[in-house]
Design brief:
The complex is a heterodimer of chains A (about 210) and B (about 250).
Chain A lengths: L4 H20 L2 H8 L5 E6 L5 E6 L4 E4 L7 E5 L1 H9 L11 E4 L2 H11 L5 H9 L1 H36 L6 H32 L6
Parallel strand pairs in A: 1-4
Antiparallel strand pairs in A: 1-2, 2-3, 4-5
Helix pairs in contact in A: 5-6
Chain B lengths: L5 E4 L2 E4 H15 L3 H9 L2 H13 L6 E5 L5 H10 L4 E6 L2 H13 L6 E5 L12 E7 L8 H11 E12 L5 H23 L2 H13 L3 H11 L2 E8 L4 E7 L2
Parallel strand pairs in B: 3-4, 3-6, 4-5, 6-7
Antiparallel strand pairs in B: 1-2, 7-9, 8-9
Helix pairs in contact in B: 1-8, 3-4, 6-9, 7-8
Classes of the chains: A alpha+beta (about 210), B alpha/beta (about 250).
Chain lengths: ~210, ~250
Amino acid sequence: MKIDPTLHSAATASLEAVINRALRYDPATRLKLARLAGKSLVIDISGSDLSLGCHFDADSIRIVGQIDNPTTRLSGSVSALLSLALSERLNLTGSGVEAWGNTALLTDLKSIAAQLELDWEEAVNELLGDILGHQLANTARAQLGWLRSRGASGKRLLQEFLTEELRALPAAPQLQQFNDNVDQLRLAADRLSARVERLLRKRHPPAAE
Amino acid sequence: MTDKKTTHFGFQEVPVEEKAGRVADVFHSVAAKYDIMNDLMSGGVHRLWKRFTIEISGVRPGDKVLDIAGGTGDLSYKFSRIVGAEGLVVLADINESMLRVGRDRLTDRGVSGNLVVAQADAQYLPFPDNTFDCITIAFGLRNVTDKDLALRSMLRVLKPGGRLLVLEFSKPQSQLLSKVYDTYSFRLLPAMGKLVANDPDSYRYLAESIRMHPDQETLKDMMTEAGFANAHYHNMTGGIVALHKGVKP
């Protein structure tokens, strides 16, 4: 079913307002995005008529439904696009996402997103005032830092328990060694197959046409 | 018996040479409160219609854009930001009062350098042939006396490959929406006009002129007839408004 352009415009206008408002709290990211001025990105959701385009302007971004001849066009399912956006990988091989045009724009965007640092304290201050906002931000920062360090050490401990104590999973170096061995075996098998092929051809040369 | 040519002014038939003057009176009357009334009448949705027009226009940095019947400059403001210092936006309107409001508003919003203002009649555009990459006329074509003449004039000043976008009220696509819309236009709209702008007659004219405007298919045929290629349209808000697009071959 085709979405009425009015609804589509309402959605893109809201998204644009949220993103540009968020960018107000990260001047460094805004400056980096300004270097992309004049470029554009289109994301096509495969299996639907939905497309989302983004124009990068000098001081803001514009979200639209369609762009003719964008700098870069991406196409994939929602899950594939999301996992690409959230992962740290830079190449698209096996990601389920296809790209057309200048893929350097994607690399630039990934690198900008990785360094995104919104000054959310400023946003809170605008709502609650400097004193209360700062107190709240300090408390939230401390809690968040604690959670982050617990999360990191929890992940490390679980990893050690599964590999070293329980021996349920191989350690990363072992897995790497195994993968290397599989690669070597595959190459050796390919070589062997080529040799057998050559020997067979020698014994039974193809009949001249 | 008279052989004077007539045209419609809302639901009335008036001599052709009188229509422009009468439309001018309406817009002189509503100019000061045009923006506030637009927001009130459409619930702010006119901004979304214009946003979609800009999106479809495909205007790029460096382009030359003519915003006919640009009124208070909503489209011109956005276009001036898109075309940048290398481009040019011409805000044109036949009505001096509307143009003055638009010019002041754009100046207040810091638009300068790439925008010029021109008082011009859409039927006789005072620009050289093949000048613009894109022409828009938003909620203006229905007030033009000779629409065919205006379309031909726009075609002339467009560059080959240039786009014309006509944003205009049109025919709702469902019976139910059509009835609701009629009630709104002929009862609520003049009442709002009276309340906010103390000018119910002008707003009654706006509602009547919408009904007299060609529907989607007719306008598309008129554009093709005038010489535009690939004329097509997008219905918005159930067809209350339609955006027609054509390309100069």
